[in-house]
Amino acid sequence: MFQFPFILAAVIFFFLLLIFLFIMVQVGLVTVAFAKLGLTTSQAFLVLLATLAGSGMNLPILHSRRMIKVPSPNGPPLNNPFYRHMRPMRPFQAMGELREQVVAVNVGGCVIPLLLSTYFVSLMGFTPALLLCTALVTAACFAMARPIPGVGIGIPMLVPPLVTAIIAILLAPPEHAPQIAYVSGTMGTLLGADILHLLNPRTWRNLDAPVLSIGGAGTFDGIFVTGILAVLLA
Q1: Model confidence over 180-197: pLDDT tens digits?
Q2: Residue 28 sits in which domain range?
Q3: Which domain of life is it from (predicted)?
Q4: N or C: which terminus of the chain carries fewer CB neighbours within 10 A?
């Protein structure tokens, strides 16, 4: 499903992040963040490992019937906060080849955060604070997200966690602030940055990527960082 340069870049990125996360666990930042959520150190590391591994996995859910040209592999620079991941492509695709556009969900950026959020909501319920925080994060992410040619939808990496942390500090009750920060941050980013834009016909017409990945491409880092930073700051 991916070209060789993407696979090589993804493997390097994965191992660098794995080393970074291992150091963070040793220092205690990730441990503190997930301890606030009620997870143990081993559970936290497994969740983060699964999230990183799943960031390269897209599960197709819809074929749009639009024929899209495969973009050039020379994409935007990786050090730009809008463009943190190489664009997903199928193996042996030739540049300029027409492919049917596919909408998919990213395992690391959508499925795992959704499962974790469902678990946390089952423990604390749908509180007014949770609904309000999620709505505000959704609105902020919707306003900041932009279509990226050949990639999908992107959002500055630090916008979701910082907005989430501020909102959770102001509105969430202290006993549930970490859980509300995680759920509203991840779900608000998915809704505001990806899903609502995909449901907008005007935005859809500007999305020329072969694979539109919910929770992947330009929004994965925003969701990933939100899950850690928002909880630490809340």
Answers
A1: 999 999 999 999 988 998
A2: 4-233
A3: Bacteria
A4: N
